[in-house]
C-alpha cells in the first residue's frame, strides 16, 4: 500500500471508536502518557467517542495507568486476550496448561545452557507469575505488569486451579526475533508466537489478536468499520488495521506496519495519535 500522510484527510469524519497501541504509539519517548492525552480524552467523551488503549500489557496495568480517567475506560489487554468495555471484562481467551508446561520447559532448558538471556512471564487472569527475580528482569516486567507474583518454580502455577492462563511472554535482553524463531518453532496450533516488541515474544492462541478485540468492541458498541480509527507501530498491531477504515501507522513504525496502514501519522514523540484524533474526529 502506498504511504499516504494523515494530512490528506481534509475534513473531520464520523468516528465513534478510536483504538491505539501504547508503546511507541500513544506513549511518549519515556513511556509516559503525553500531557495532551487527557484533554483529548475529555473531548472524545463529550462527543460520545470511545477511546481504547490496546496493548500486550496486563489488564491491571492499564487500569492503573489510566486511573485518572473520570469514566471507566475500555481496554484491549494482553494482545487481545482480555477485552473490557466501560470497566467490565466482556471477553477472555486462555491457553492450556499443557502449553504453559511446554514453554516453561523450553525456557528452563535455554537458561540452563546459557544460550539466551531470557525470562518467562506466565500471564494469568489474576496475576503475572515469574521465577526470575534479578533487578534487571524485574525492571522490564514492571513496565508492563502491575500485579506480579514471584514463585520459586513456575511449575507451581500449574496447580492453581482457580487461575486462567491468558498467554506466555518471554523477554529477551537481546532482540527477541532470533530467539523466538529458534526456541518456539515447535509450538503447534492452535497456538503461535507473536513478536509484541523488540525484546518480547508472546505465545498465545493463534485465533486471537488485537484485531479480534477491535471486533468485539465494535459489536458491543454498534460501531462499524467506517466509524473506527486505529493506531499502531509494531507487527502485533497490524491485525487491527483490517477492521478500521482509518488505520494509522505512526512515523516511527516498523516498515511492514507502515506498508499495511492506510495513513501515516506523526511519530509518538510528536503526539501523533493526539494530533490526528483532534483533526479527524467530528
SSE blueprint:
Layout (H helix, E strand, L loop, with lengths): L16 E5 H5 L10 H11 L2 E5 L4 H7 L9 E3 L4 E4 L2 E5 L4 H17 L4 E7 L3 E3 L4 H8 L5 E3 L14 E8 L3 H8 L7 E7 L2 E6 L4 H12 L6 E5 L5 H4 L4 E5 L4 H6 L2 E3 L6 H9 L2
Parallel strand pairs: 1-2, 1-12, 7-8, 12-13, 13-14
Antiparallel strand pairs: 3-4, 4-5, 6-7, 6-9, 9-11, 10-11
Could you give a quick summary of the protein structure above?
By secondary structure, the protein is α/β, with parallel strands linked by helices.
What does this structure look like?
By secondary structure, the protein is α/β, with parallel strands linked by helices. It has two domains: 6-92 and 209-280, Rossmann fold, CATH 3.40.50.1000; 97-205, Hypothetical Protein, Haloacid Dehalogenase-like Hydrolase, Chain: A, domain 2 (2-Layer Sandwich), CATH 3.30.1240. Helix content is 31%, strand content 24%. It contains ten helices and 14 strands. The strands form three sheets. A six-stranded mixed beta sheet has the order 8-7-6-9-11-10, sandwiched between helices. The protein has a five-stranded parallel beta sheet with strand order 2-1-12-13-14, with helices on both faces. The protein has a three-stranded antiparallel beta sheet with strand order 3-4-5, sandwiched between helices. Helix 9 links the parallel strand 13 (246-250) and strand 14 (263-265). The longest helix has 17 residues, at 97-113. It is globular, with a radius of gyration of 19 Å. The two termini are 26 Å apart. The relative contact order is 0.20. The mean pLDDT is 96.
